[in-house]
Every structure is written in C-alpha cells, then in structure tokens.
Amino acid sequence: MKTLRGRFVCLLLLVSILGIGMSARAQETEKKEIPLKYGATYVGKRQDDAMKKFRENRLGAFIHWGLYAIPGGEWNGKVYNGAAEWLKSWAKVPSDEWMKLMKEWNPKQFDAQTWAKMMKDMGVKYVKITTKHHEGFCLWSSKYSKYTVAHTPYKKDIWGELVKAFNDEGIDVHFYFSVMDWSHPDWRYDIKTAEDSVAFSRFLEFTDNQLRELAERYPTVKDFWFDGTWDASVKKNAWWTAHAEQMLKELLPGVTVNSRLRADDYGKRHFDSNGHLMGDYESGYERRLPDPIKDVQVTQWDWEACMTLPENQWGYHKDWSLSYVKTPVEVLERIVHAVSMGGNMVVNFGPQPDGDFRPEEKEMAAAIGEWMRKYGECIYGCDYAGLEKQDWGYYTRHGENVYMVVFNRPYSSHLIVKSSKGEQLVSAELLDGTRLKVTETARDEYHVNMPVQDPSEPFVIRLHFEKAGENGKKYREALI
Ligand code: FHN
C-alpha cells in the first residue's frame, strides 16, 4: 500500500509529465504555422461596416454579359451544350475572329434603369457584373484595350450607366473580373521559359492598370470578385495576388475581395498553407453548397456561393431545353440553405445580346421577389442559428429571432424543433403574428404545429427561445 506521501509524489510526477506533454504539443501546434509572405493578411471574420454590409446583404445577383451572348452557344451552325461564355474555347475560335463579334454589339433594348428595377424587385441587395470575362471583351471603355464597348456600334459606356442605375436603386455593385484573358498576347497558362516570365509580367502590369482604372473610374464599387485565377501562371505569381488585393484596398477603403484571387507562397488557393482564409470571403461554392450537417465549419468564416439557373450556363445560351432549369422553389431553397450556414447567395442571369432578359429569367426574378417581400425577414442580416438541422427545411437567425423556413410538410403536421441545451422554446408564430401550437415532447425537443391554412409555398415561422427555467420543463425534470 502506498503512503500518503508516496501518492502525492506520484501525482506530482503525473502532473509534470502531462504538463511537459501538453506544452510540447502546444509548441508543435505553434511550429505548424509556416511563415508565409503571401498568406492570409488577417485571421477571423472582418468586422468593419463594409464587411458587415456585405454579410447582411445576403442575396445578390450575378450578371454574365459579353460578346458570347451574340452567338448564344452556336458557332458555324453547331450548337455547343457547354457553358455559352466558353464557346470561343469549345469551338476553338481564334481571338481575332471572335472579336469580330464586336461589330454586332449593339444592344438596342439595353436600359440600365430597367435592369436595376428588375433586380430591386427581385430583392437583391447587390449585383455582381462581369467587367471582363475570359474572352477579354471589356464592358467599360478601358484605355488599355482595343476590345471594349467603346469600339462597338453601341459605343456607350454600359458600365457607367449600370453602376449609376444600380446605385440609384440602393443596390451595391460588385465587379466580376477575369484575370485570365484569352485576347491578350501576354496571357500564359504556365510559366515555363524566361520569355513566358517576361510576357506574364507585362500581362500583370496590364491587369494592374485595368484594375486601377476600374477602381478610380467607378469609386462606388463595393467588391472585386476575381475569376480565372486557377492556372499555374497565377499560382507561381502569388506575390501579385497579394499585391492586387492590397492595391484595391488602398484605392478603395472598405472594398471586399473574394478568396478566388489569392494564392500563397506554395500556390495554395483560397486558404493558405496554415489553413487561414485569404481574401475577405470564401468563394469556392459554385453551383454547389456545403452540406448542412457535415460542413458546419463554414460558419466560422464569411463565404458566398453562386449558382446558375440551368445546370451550367452563365452567359446567354439560346437553347435552355438542353439542360435542366431550376424552378423558383429550388432557387429559394438554395438561397435559404446558404444563409442558414452563414453564407451569401448570388443567382446568375445571362442577358440576351439585345440587352433584354429572357422571359424565364424575368419570371424567376419576379417569383423570388414576391417571396422575398413576404419572407425576406429570414434572409437579410440573418445567420447560422446553431440548431440541429431538421428535415422540414432550414433555420436562420437574426439576433434573438430564430426562423424556421419550411420547405417540406410532414404528414403528421408536426414540425420537430430541437433546442440547444439550456434553452427552451417558448413560442412559435407566423410572420403576421399568428401563433402556432408548441408542444414539448422530449428533453430539448418540441413539436410546432403546421398552420391551419397551409400557405402552399415555402413559408417562415419565427421562434422565441428563453433560457430554460425551473418551471414547465417536465421532460427535462423527468429525464435528469
Ligand atoms: O469559367 C467561369 C465561368 O464561366 C463562370 O464565370 C463562373 C462563375 O463563377 N466562374 C468560372 C468557373 O469557375
């Protein structure tokens, strides 16, 4: 039998062994942070007003418009089912031939106010528009390129008109910018020779000039969304991605930049080699969303997803019958899904070459808008609610208010809610204040009754929770 003293010595030994082990582990963790020159510039969510606004907006629209709208997926009589904005690549059209489309760029139906009104009615708080897509055609009259709207029969500065019209409606404008530029002789997919290196340096200087030009000419822009940055040439020039972000932030204090721009010293994209997000928000969720149960880690950073209405058409394609096209309810579900996990959702539109939107897109915008006018309370400014996902739909939260966005109706007419530990559900009501019956059915578990009159569309229930008290917790008491 050990003496008391012996036991004390053993305990001391154990504590010091554990202590040494823990501090070794702490050092190991510290060691794991690789020093990076071009990694994340800060860690954690940005909390300034501009970023808060970005986050609170939650719903945006994407607009892909360029020369590719003219052929609309068809070249020399052949219809290509791939993304219409990639037609130049599918049909292997040389740049000088492709740029002849500029002669046909005369969107007579284009009216910036009509676009802004349509987006306002849809309920979007921001619009991301392609300043320049991979083809290289610029929707603004860039002095650094001959491929711009200024050299088309239309001539006018589409960009200036759009920025003004959207801003007049209180809609933030975000600039989509493709770094990859198929029209530029100095663009390289990779840097393999000294000549590539020199050419690509010229290309980066040209890109800097264009970015500076956009920032200075349209200073109300709130965000730069980079694309076409996945190639080895950009990854081998990580310094430039960090520089471009910094340059824009110096030119436009408060501007936000997506993660897609960035690469670190080792060519890692979006998240640096230490696992920290680069740029202000993650932008890898394209036409897909994080799993609501397995991927809750996304709630730790800001992120934005984007989606097409057909399976994969961003620019105008004349034949939508070639792929599945989402219904308004499917689009709404994706919007809510994103917000329920602390993200933004951007819904894409591909205007016709005449400057009008196709009827299906107008109908979609109107349907989303109608829903947002009734239920937008569960979207704008909302975030992850921290509750266990249930099969009827998604939760969102705005401060004390928790919202259930119901997409699926159970035959039982009972919607299950599982509260967080230490919280009890005290009431459930529709947004017009109609109370719904709440029954406590097990520990931290409730049934909320479906409304007597089913709204026959995805609808919203507002929940109020309180700290669990002594009274009325029969299951809690019974089960403890
Ligand atoms: O290649 C582009 C595509 O055309 C479209 O612009 C999307 C939008 O997120 N981005 C690229 C593919 O990731």
Instruction: Give the number of helices.
Output: 12
Name the CATH class of the largest domain: Alpha Beta
Number of domains: 2
**Which series of helices and strands comes N to C?**
HHEEEHHHEHEHEHHEEHEHEEEEEEEEH
Low-confidence stretches: 8-22
Tell me, what's the shape?
Answer: globular
Q: Which percent range describes the beta-strand content?
A: 15-25%
Mean pLDDT: 93
**What share of residues is helical?**
25-40%
CATH topology of the largest domain: TIM Barrel
The gyration radius over C-alpha positions equals: 27 Å
Ligands bound here? ligand FHN
How many beta-strand elements?
17
Span of the ends, CA to CA: 39 Å
Provide structural commentary.
- This protein has helices at residues 4-32, 49-57, 87-90, 95-98, 112-122, 158-168, 194-217, 232-235, 238-251, 328-340, 359-375, 474-479; strands at 59-63, 74-75, 78-79, 126-132, 172-178, 223-227, 256-257, 303-307, 343-349, 393-398, 401-406, 414-418, 423-430, 435-436, 438-442, 445-449, 459-467.
- The protein has 480 residues and is of the alpha/beta class.
- The chain has 2 domains: 49-378, TIM Barrel, CATH 3.20.20; 393-473, Sandwich (Immunoglobulin-like).
- β5, α7 (194-217) and β6 form a beta-alpha-beta unit.
- The longest helix has 29 residues, at 4-32.
- Residues 8-22 have low confidence and may be disordered.
- Residues 64, 83, 85, 227, 286, 306, 314 line the site of ligand FHN.
- Ligand FHN is lined by residues 64, 83, 85, 227, 286, 306, 314.
